[in-house]
Amino acid sequence: MIQLERVSLTRGSFSLREIDLTIKQGEHFFIIGPSGSGKTLLLETIAGIHPDAEGRILINGKDMENVPPEKRGLSLMYQDYSLFPHLTVAENITFGLKIQGIPQHEISRVIESLVFKFGLSTLLDRHPASLSGGEKQRVALARALATNPGILLLDEPFAAIDPVLKSQFIDELKMIREEKDLTILQVSHSREETYTLADRVAVLIGGKICQVGTCNEVFCHPVSINVAVFTGIENILDGLVISGKSGERILIAGNVRIGIPHNIPAGTHVVVCIRAADIIINPICDPENPEFFSNEGIIKGLREDEHGVSVSIDCGVMMTSWFSRREQKRYQLKIGQKVLLGFPFQAVQLIRKECGEDLSVFHSSLS
Amino acid sequence: MPHPHPLLRDPIILVFTIAGGSLVALILCAVFIIAVPELANPIHLASIAGEREVIDSLFITFLAGFIAILIILLLGTPLSYVLARNDFSGKEVIEGLIDIPLILPHTVAGLMVYLLFMTRGIIGAPFQTIGFIFEDAFPGIIAAMVFVAIPYYVDGVREGFEMVPVRLEHVARTLGATRWKTFIWISLPLTSRHIVSSALIAWGRAIGEFAAVVMIAYFPMVVSSLIYLRFVTGGITESRSVAFIMLILCLGLFIGIKLITKRFGRYHDTA
Prior knowledge:
The structure holds two protein chains of two kinds. By secondary structure, chain A is of the alpha+beta class. Chain A has two domains: 219 residues, 3-Layer(aba) Sandwich (Rossmann fold); 142 residues, CATH 2.40.50.100. Helix content of chain A is 26%, strand content 33%. In chain A, the strands form four sheets. A six-stranded mixed β-sheet of chain A has the order 6-7-8-3-9-10, with helices on both faces. In chain A, a hairpin with a 2-residue loop joins strand 1 and strand 2. In chain A, helix 2 packs parallel to helix 4 and helix 3 packs antiparallel against helix 4. Chain A is elongated, with a radius of gyration of 25 Å. Chain B has 15 helices and no strands. Chain B is globular. Chain B is mostly helical. The mean pLDDT of chain B is 91. Chains A and B meet through strand 6, helix 2 and helix 4 of A and helix 10 and helix 11 of B.
């Protein structure tokens, strides 16, 4: 378990600001955030590389103040793998054990099992300069695991390898974690990676933790505009809550009107966040559900990618919807076509619009 | 039509080759002007090489140079590391101080060394009380050599340490290495190339020093002093033979060490 209490650190003009975080034993925890948000610095601080950091770091309940990196029982793996260029693969993997004075027969046993697990037997005498990206990554992970750490700190481990290797590696990482009851803290900027692996996620923006939660909470229910923008929510609009004829609450954004639960005071200005994939498009009027598809829009653009089609729709404000290739085959949507839009209110995330960064949330009232 | 030589097809390379070639020619001429007459009269050369005074001065020069480099290795390596890894206020001042022996006239450096290490000097005096004398003595030669060679070593090695990614040290730490072990097993070996080449240049500078050495210790005589003495007392033929011997020894050692350490510390080559 890792606990951070008000951890702050300044490097040049950048600061990590009062980070509070608890990572449970055996958890695969992700820190995500745009580049330059301090993710790597935070990992290094946990590793003990920056002893001037303020606040408290506890690992398994023990205060890490004055505990040097070599005594923290963790391993750190960088994005560039940072293999020791003057040592062979075998020497890289055994570096930690040798430096700690572990007896040779014990080292041989550990290296044997790692070599087998990561398929490194043909690489042992090579130097890092002659390895491919995928090979380097395997060696780096083997090296990190050789000292049998309780915590693995991974800094964008998949950034530099191709997708096939990546999915293979993701499976391996899952297996290792279960086998060793490892706590993994991983830095990433990929949503896909995070969804696949993370138990929980923290969003770090500008040196500050903006949100902590499960993938679903963070990606679908951002608590601030910063998080919404970073997690790639396609539709972020200004909106206003008004009172309908019979007292129901209606959210207005452009020409879009969405019925929402009752407990939000009329007259509240909000920021509306809706994922493109959550907007339902219907090219024909649905007689069973006319109320749901009460918003009209005109298709202004279609953009196909490998998974589906994203559609720009003018509803007074521009909105982006997304649907699969199969749906596009069925509907044959065209630019200029008029469509009906439905907004399931569970998919609509509202952020109260106030000045500054302090944005409270109505999320609980909606889900 | 026959293809012209690649040099003639590229005007900039042609011009640069002519310009640069004149420098190479200058050095080559300098070597020949000493080597040719000496090789033409090997009997005279052999007799000079056998002189007690010459052998002694060669021995003193190389031994003092060797000890000076050991001292610089021992004290200059930590200094280089600190300068490479840390930013602190006043760092520029320290960097400027280190380069003083580099930019000053050698006689000024000599005067500085003399004033510090003479028997009444602030370093020389306390050492004299324990019977260790720099003035006109072997330790004085070493002191002068160390002083003038410091920047050549420190500047080069510092650059070497800067090229070692600090992340390698971080990883080593988390793998269980203490700060000391990380330095010895990661930072130092990865800087070995720079250490060797900088030490070699500093060593060349040390054994070649004349002005600073002569001011603190005219005796025992180093090769530079001997050549100068023979030049002003005996003339060209007297000094040229010693110079030629020195040239051969230095060149031999320099090339030898370069060859031995050619593959040393090259980790980025793909094997």
